[in-house]
Amino acid sequence: MSTDFFKGIEKATYEGPDSTNPMAFHHYNPEEVVMGKTMAEHLRFAIAYWHSFAWEGGDPFGGQTFERPWYPQDDMARAKLKADVAFEMFEILGAPFYCWHDADVRPEQGNFADNLSTLNEMVDYFGEKQEATGINLLWGTANMFSHRRWMSGASTNPDPDVFAFAAATVKSCMDATMKLGGQNYVLWGGREGYETLINTDMGAELDHMGRFLNMVVEYKHKIGFKGQILVEPKPQEPSKHQYDYDAATCFGFLQKYGLENEVKLNLEQGHAILAGHSFEHEIATATALGVLGSIDMNRNDYQSGWDTDQFPNNVPEVALCYYHILKDGGFTQGGTNFDAKIRRQSLDAEDLIAAHIGGMDVCARGLKAAAAMIEDGGLEDALKERYAGWETPEAKAMLDSDFDTITQRVLADNVNPAPRSGRQEILENYINRFV
Which annotated residues bind Mg(2+) 1 (predicted)? Predict the structure, then answer.
């Protein structure tokens, strides 16, 4: 059914860089071909159900600022109205995908059986919406951090009954994701960590988390789910220290529990910043380790100490991220999910549309810049030149040698290397030609 929430807002279309229309795309042309694929096929945009429709405008220091016709989010009639509005927005933006947590789409019932019933009812409703619009589910996930039952974690909780509730919850969300044709299932451990070590058995918690993730993979194969299983790294907030700290930490965890060939990563820019990294670093780490699955595109306020989830607006940063993604072969089942929210002072429906239009334009500019750099080959040429010494037979043989043999060669040939410039500023200037 149609609603009046976006009344007067037309479907966003591509008008080009000279347009001054704030509700049109200036750079994102979904049909434009870049490196043999359309922008739509490269970027695979998804809208985050939680920030766009479930979030009420609160922050750590203040409560609700938004007034929406589906508030309070406590019954099924309003849950379905929220879904109606959501799919209207997906169509206005021309977004091919969306993502959800279970708690975003159904009201909290206080017990598992009723939560399952309302979730399944909403899944049927989403199925009708997807069939009518052609919009698909990029991924589903379970919210195991908001309700008080999760205050000490989910799979890492000291109470085995919470572990059991978490297992049943994830099973229900995997079932829902599969029924809706979701292409991935994500696990974000919002409270899988600790506040203090004085009451924490870290070894036990890591083992329980590892077993839980193995159960997820076992269930994936049992039901024949063809999507990717993704873990989303995050270093802190709300827990003091979370076990899924960053891409490298997650890979080590996957190796320890025998999951490195079964699970990939869903990386978020805001989480990279909280870990003290750049998004480029996290993506490059994941591609080097062969575990890049999908991304959440947003940004943090660099002056704030928490995950502010703002829409992306830094083209050079985004360009370098897509550079590594394209070099890795691009997305297969993953995509670009806007895990981003408008500011709590941005009250209007128009703000919600304009924010996504801007984010999609920034990603499009970044993608085109990344593709242009790849096609030009300047960065690759610089890397080849810098590492050219490793292509010689002598250097390759050294990696199969030993310290004694290498030392003899250093003495015999009087090896005394002179430092060479890394040419960082020249390469930074090169990148600026494209962005």
Answer: 232, 268, 296, 339
Nearest CA to 11 out of 98, 130, 133 is that of 133
**Burial of 400 per CB tally in 10 Å (0-12, 13-18, 19+):** exposed
pLDDT in tens, 19-40: 999 999 999 999 999 999 999 9
What integer pLDDT is reported at residue 236 of this predicted model?
A: 85
Go through the chain and tell me how many residues it has. 435
C-alpha dist (Å) from residue 400 to 378, 395, 397, 406: 31, 9, 5, 10
- List helix spans (H) across 61-159: 76-93, 102-105, 112-133
DSSP 225-288: --SEEEE-----SSSSEESS-SHHHHHHHHHHTT-TTTEEEEEEHHHHHHTT--HHHHHHHHHH
Greatest Cα-to-Cα distance within the chain, rounded to the nearest angstrom: 82
Was 296 annotated as part of a binding site?
yes
Burial class (CB in 10 A: 0-12, 13-18, 19+), 227: buried
Which pLDDT band, with edges at 50, 70 and 90, does 107 fall under? Answer: very high
Give the pair of three-digit tokens for residue 32: 């434009």
**Contact between residue 189 and residue 244 where contact means Cβ atoms under 8 Å apart:** yes
Which two structure tokens, joined as six digits, stand for 236? Answer: 């802190």
Per the CB < 8 A criterion, the answer to whether 433 and 381 are in contact is no
Q: How far is CA 10 from CA 85, 142, 149, in A?
A: 14, 33, 42
Encoded tokens for 256: 């320890």
Just list the catalytic residues: 101, 104
User: Residue 236: how many CB atoms within 10 A of its CB?
Assistant: 16
Residue with tokens 């799979």: 155
Q: For 87, what's the count of Cα atoms within 13 Å in the CB-facing half-sphere?
A: 22
Q: Is 307 marked as binding a ligand?
A: yes
Whole-Å CA distances, 236 to 35, 213, 254, 270: 37, 20, 19, 11
Q: Which two tokens stand for residue 60?
A: 């750590």
Task: Tell whether 41 is in a known binding site.
Answer: no
Q: Mind listing the pLDDT tens digit for each residue in 142-186?
A: 999 999 999 999 999 999 999 999 999 999 999 999 999 999 999
How many CA atoms does the CB half-sphere of 295 hold within 13 Å?
28
User: Was 400 annotated as part of a binding site?
Assistant: no
- For each of the domains in the chain, give its residue range(s) and CATH number, in order of start: 33-376 (3.20.20.150), 381-432 (no CATH)
Handedness of CA 352, 358, 361, 362 (dihedral sign): negative
Residue 210 in contact with residue 155, Cβ under 8 Å? no
Is pLDDT larger for residue 134 or for residue 307? 134
